Amino acid sequence: MSGRPREGRPDEPLDADHVPVLVEEALRYLAPERGGLYVDATVGLGGHAEALLEAAPGASLLGIDRDPRALERAGRRLARFGDRARLVEGRFSELRELLAHAEGAVARPAGILGDLGVSSLQLDTPERGFSFRFDAPLDMRMGSGGHTAGEIVNRYAEADLARIFKDYGEERQARRIARALAAARTEAPIDTTRRLRELILEAKGRAPGRPSGGGGGPRREGRVDPVTRVFQALRIEVNRELAELERFVDEAARLLAEDGRVVVISYHSLEDRIVKNTLRDLARGEIDEVTGRPRAESRILEVLTRKPVRPSPAEVAANPRSRSARLRAAVRRATGESAEP
Ligand SMILES: C[S@@+](CC[C@H](N)C(=O)[O-])C[C@H]1O[C@@H](n2cnc3c(N)ncnc32)[C@H](O)[C@@H]1O
């Protein structure tokens, strides 16, 4: 964990041309012109963070990311804001601990942003194994620690692989692909993105061709490659993305100051469903076991987006990775249970 912006290596390009997704919409809901502390829980290359700090001279920002390489880049981009921007390495499911450590126990943010999924830095760095556009070791870890995608593919039981491909990739041929991988790994470990891609295509009865579309997630323009779903599923399992997200949204809502805003941008339906349901539950309140009705004092949020906000056609044309983005926002209510950290 670092309390100050990090310096990147001088030979790395700055990311000033990296365009954050739905940035105007995110700022509109976060309303940083009110000042105070904002948390960017997925600071990535610092695009949203930079826009927020530029728009609101009275705001300061704590940027979190589990990827130390992203933090280096964000640190360089945000260095010009001095003490208004601080960065910490960690998982956003640990928001409460990270915040307490960085700010002291009484910090209650005025806004919290989560821009989910992988960054372009992760997708476009071949050796990290997120993308089937490159041949690379099967890694896919956003941060350090935990199983790599290779360990999962080679060690998980066939039934578990099938469940992951079905549940996290919504892959219709999950069982057939799991069976093919389980058979292939008895001959030799499956340890590269190219080998995995070949095996999936074979199992699906597709000719091996050039990768198309996504490259690691359904976030790019063009036709979706037939292996996209399995790659997405593995990435979600490697990084425990859905469990991370559930905990994050709930904690964020509880930590916010009165009238504080939470904004989450997701990129596929599994993520969006979790965001939608968690915000809805926190807005409805906990069910009283005696009356069977929601307890009014436990309604801690008001949802601001009845439907998810989508990027405009102009944004999608300028930045194809925004295509599947959906933004949801909520505001912390004045009443509600104690949210003391
Ligand atoms: C889409 S990028 C964010 C891009 C950023 N908003 C920007 O404008 O540059 C998502 C980032 O979230 C990070 N991330 C994903 N899951 C995380 C988690 N559970 N905890 C912390 N960071 C996470 C990834 O490492 C990645 O850098």
Written overview of the protein:
By secondary structure, the chain is an alpha/beta fold. It is 38% helix and 11% strand. It contains 13 helices and seven strands. The protein has helices at residues 23-30, 47-55, 68-78, 95-103, 120-123, 149-155, 158-169, 174-184, 193-203, 228-239, 241-255, 269-284, 313-318; strands at residues 36-40, 59-65, 85-89, 111-115, 261-266, 301-303, 326-332. Strands 3-2-1-4-5-7-6 form a seven-stranded mixed beta sheet, sandwiched between helices. 46% of the residues are buried. It binds S-adenosylmethionine.
Percent in strands = 5-15%
Give me the count of strands. Answer: 7
SS-based class = alpha/beta
- List SSEs in N-to-C order: HEHEHEHEHHHHHHHEHEHE
Considering DSSP H and I runs of 4 or more, what fraction of the residues is helical? 25-40%
How far apart, in Å, are the first and last alpha carbons? Answer: 20 Å
Query: What's the mean pLDDT score?
Result: 90
Spatially, the strands of the biggest sheet line up as 3-2-1-4-5-7-6
> Largest sheet, if any?
7 strands, mixed
**Cα radius of gyration in angstroms:** 21 Å
What ranges have pLDDT less than 50 throughout 5 or more consecutive residues?
Answer: 1-13, 216-221, 336-341
